[in-house]
What does this fold into?
Amino acid sequence: MKKMIFSAVALVAFSFAGMANEIEEEKIETITLKLSCATIAAIQTMVASEAHCNETGNDWDSWTYNFVYETYYTQCS
Amino acid sequence: MKKIFISYIFLILFIGCKTTKQNTINDKTIVMYKVSESKKTDKPIKFDPSFLTFELIYDKNESIFHLVDKLDGNSNNIDIKITKGIYDGYIKFYKNNLEKQKFFNVDEKGLIFNVETDFKNYKWEINPNDTKEISGFKCYKATAKTERKHNGKTQDIFQSYAWFTYEIPTSFGPRGLDGLPGLVLEGSFDGNKIFYVTSINKTDRNIEKPSAQKTISYEEYSNLKYDSVFEMKKAQQENAAEIEQAKKQLPKK
It folds into this structure.
């Protein structure tokens, strides 16, 4: 009897652990789908601009920054 | 008989001289340039312009400068596209000394413009004491301040410079850096992107004046560009919360 109860509890515990992983994966997918192209392009441009500044010590001027943003935006839409 | 023979010789010499003179007038030169970024670190650059090659073709009166576009499988690669754009690979610079015309040709959101600039848009200051040798030519440095405006209000200021040589007496140069008493062998519009010569040769290729769907002034073009910049900033402000949320999801370095 004791062995049966212990097995049942273990089974339920493992089932909950499995479901928790599935719930977490669902949440990440939802966040990705909800971002607009404007946001995606803004993030990509920001990351690229910061990388360029780290690599060269130079900032992009506003026209260059805007060009990069519009290129990423066009790719997204 | 002798007179006829001598006249014939003179005629041949005259035609020969005239042809030679014409060839000299129409002599064209092709100058190849590469572009680099002035760097304060030794780190490799993501948007590395070392694969880009530009050419300047000029004769006595006109010139055209543009990217030598190698259409290959990488042309649609987003990083390649961005690199070309950063280093003015999508712009052609044209100048004609006879017609006092200077413009650059650019595709702006699907519409091709010829953007007319002042014939002498750089107010160069030459420093006779600042010299260096480039490709075997003694070069002098010229500097100029360049402003970009939106509706008459200065938005950006650039320190442009050019190294030119009197040994090649032409007023042309790369990326619209011209108007000096010699060929520009190295120069930068913004002080960071540096165009430098790799070869100079004679050519018989034609100088093709770029065509466009519309011709506008530099002032109009500058207003257009800054309108896009401000639209981008406005969109970022409107999406500020979403951008902030997305930034938190970025992997930490």
Remarks:
- The longest strand of chain B covers residues 137-150.
- The domain at 28-230 of chain B is CATH 2.50.20 (outer membrane lipoprotein receptor (LolB), chain A).
- Residues 2-25 of chain B form the longest helix (24 residues).
- The helical segments of chain B are 2-25, 78-86, 218-238, 240-248.
